[in-house]
Amino acid sequence: MWPLRTAVKGANSKTWVAWRHREAQGEQAQALRSWDLTTGTERRSGKGPCGSTAPGRAREKAPRQLGALTDPTEKASPSQAPGAERCEGGKAQAPGADRPSADSGSESGPHALDQAQDGIPRPLSCGGSWVAILSTSQEESRTIRAIRTPAGVKYEFCATKTESVGMVDRQGDPFLAFHINKGLVRKYMNSLLIGELSPEQPSVEPSKNMELTYEFRELRAAVGRMGLMRTNHLFFLLHLLHILLLDGAAWLTLHILGTSLLPFLLCAVLLSVVQAQAGWLQHDFGHLSVFGTSTMNHLLHHFVIGHLKGAPASWWNHMHFQHHAKPNCFRKDPDINMHPLFFALGKVLSVELGKQKKKYMPYNHQHRYFFLIGPPALLPLYFQWYIFYFVIQRKKWVDLAWMLTFYLRLFLTYVPLLGLRGFLGLFFIVRFLESNWFVWVTQMNHIPMHIDHDRNVDWVSTQLQATCNVEQSFFNDWFSGHLNFQIEHHLFPTMPRHNYHKAAPLVRSLCAKHGIEYQSKPLLSAFADIVHSLKESGQLWLDAYLHQ
């Protein structure tokens, strides 16, 4: 991140600077103080901690010098919460304010203005964690807002209304990608606003591909004008109906044909299809790609993932949006957390692990034991139990209630037909079959691709280097829940999946123009590439472990 510079070059280049305060008891008292830097006019609306102003309707006050941010007699409460600004020597200081300012080469955070002895405004580091996003919905806008992240808060995306995925990139592309109602989200973020970047600063960090970023923003605008973000509700209704019909057919199979081995296995297969297809449908609601409001999407998300699958929506949000923000970035994408405990993933990380002489597993055989601890085990041996720990540990009681309706429905439906032992056997066979389906589909798009530490590249490059597609066909679309268009899904996560194939030629052209490989392969080749990549990275680990 760059520092928030506040150079003023005339009456038209207004920059507002604000400080955010938090009381020890919570975040409800958020006080702001800001100045119009072109006039030195302070706008305020009531005293807050450290002499700052509380939220409310701003009113003009007589101009004053910018140096005296607070009354020297005002002092901070010793019980201020972590992340609150400190008042020292009559001057409000944010966490990290004792770090060097931008004038000394620091780029540790945004900068407020202090008044030097010669009367010239100069940067003063606010320090702490901060992020910058686009401040308007117009993608061509170069207005950037800096937002303070509460101290100690890891941005586990969408955990709350203010903890937004969009607040992780300077250019704001994740913000534009993940929110369908950006105006509403900005209302919640206003209390965190600390300033705006000067007009002369670029909206993309120089370490990133500016040309690709700007052209992708134009592409995103074109996609919107083409109507590709609009939903065909009939598509999702039919998809839900086919899930419910298969669910009913599974019960009728046992009810009509009896509980012998063949009807039992047929029922298990039908229920596995139900679970897999419900998994793809909840994915649509979770990404807010079905309805125009978050409320309706969240409600149906709870119904599908909670009542039809027995999993918590909050757990899915917690895990999945981290994956989308930084796919295949070690320690930022939870989908690759099996490195290094179970697998050595990616060429870079595998060699790094070998050089460090670390061996948690015989990684040179991982392409073999993947068939034992990967597809068959992930859901029945891990997810099935972890989701209950997650909701109880985090007190997600609404999610737990939705989950219990699934287990209660399944229990009342099948125990009278199969007995308790037969029901448990059916349940874990279904989870076993679903787990194989789920793992092969979800890993074919990412495991064979580039896996590394976060290198802070631009949003588009981050997505493209970590994802690949699988060729389109009616079966592939249905079998993978349209995740065979993984590239388009990662670039446009709120796009309804029935429009991915329309956006694909546009994305392919953008990749060709910038010399970026757009990978699309047959389904079976994609499955095989998972194993091949594990074999390759395992061998790289072994070579580094033995010889480097």
TrEMBL record:
- BP terms from Gene Ontology: fatty acid biosynthetic process
The keyword Transmembrane appears for this protein = yes
Stretches for region Disordered: 23-121
Origin superkingdom: Eukaryota
- Transmembrane segments annotated in the record for this chain: 260-281, 369-391, 411-433
Keyword annotations for this protein, in alphabetical order, are: Fatty acid biosynthesis, Fatty acid metabolism, Lipid biosynthesis, Lipid metabolism, Membrane, Transmembrane, Transmembrane helix
Name all Fatty acid desaturase domain ranges.
261-520
Q: Which GO terms describe its molecular function?
A: oxidoreductase activity, acting on paired donors, with oxidation of a pair of donors resulting in the reduction of molecular oxygen to two molecules of water
| One Pfam family this sequence matches | FA_desaturase
A GO cellular component annotated for this chain's UniProt record is: membrane
**Per its record, how is this protein called by name?**
Fatty acid desaturase 1
